[in-house]
Amino acid sequence: MTDAPDVPEHPKLAYRHTPGRGPTVVFLCGYASDMNGTKALALEQWAQRTGRAFLRFDYAGCGESEGDFEDQTLASWRDDALRVIDMVVEGPVVLVGSSMGGWVMLLVGKERPGLVVGMVGIAAAPDFTDWGYSDAEKALILRDGRIEQPNDYGDTPTVTTRDFWVSGEANKMMTGPIAFDGPVRLLQGQRDSEVPWQRALTLAGLFRSDAVQIVLVKDGDHRLSRDNDLALILRSVEDVLFLCSSSS
Asked: By CB neighbour count within 10 A (0-12 exposed, 13-18 middle, 19+ buried), where does 17 fall?
């Protein structure tokens, strides 16, 4: 395991860095996910084949990184991403954000406007603390400090804490224009049971950039991890990298 250098009072973060030509492609995982998922590994294999620089990592409390999952918040995971990128990557980055990672992608772009040159969102779910829970679920989170929900991707329930929910509400990104001018690709399944596909249309309209395209996958689910989905992701990343090189 490769760890990001120690920062006082911060958990050690596990990451895998593939050296190569920049911009470095950085994969940002979804909620309660880790860097060993299908999409992250497919991107790493592509980077190794093509000589591209690539970075995947685990947020604190996830995968191989230190920390307690329930101690983490959206802001702390944003800061994990910033910390790993600042310590490992030299030069510009293209962010690939999956589900909640799409929210982290926007937050990192806001914090590092001179560093982030392109974005690819995969079922991006910014602001999901606002629209992803019913009023009853929000009330339970605030009353009990946490809720457990069925997990379609594992045997253990998905936990949302009050601290995470409050952090999400404080860091919404779809309340106004998004000040990003680089190329953006948003990939969204229309059979996604977690992120309504219409949200991709709304998100696209908020970017200041005109170089924004949406790809709707009619039979695509939330994961977008089938072979044809992975091929689409790779083509989208290559497209963004080409546009970044053309404009530099």
From this structure: middle
33, 76, 99, 236: which one is catalytic? 99
What's the rounded Cα separation, in Å, for the pair 40 and 48?
12
From start to end of 140-219, where are the E strands? 146-149, 158-161, 184-189, 212-217
Position with higher pLDDT, 225 vs 154: 225
To the query of whether residue 76 is one of the catalytic residues in this protein, the response is no
Tokens 């009353």 belong to: 143
Per-residue pLDDT, averaged over 117-137, amounts to: 97
State the catalytic residue, choosing from 58, 163, 192, 229. Answer: 192
Catalytic residue among 33, 58, 76, 222: 222
Residue with tokens 């709304």: 202
The predicted model scores a pTM of: 0.94
Domain 2-126+174-247: give its CATH superfamily.
Alpha/Beta hydrolase fold, catalytic domain (3.40.50.1820)
Is 192 assigned a catalytic role? yes
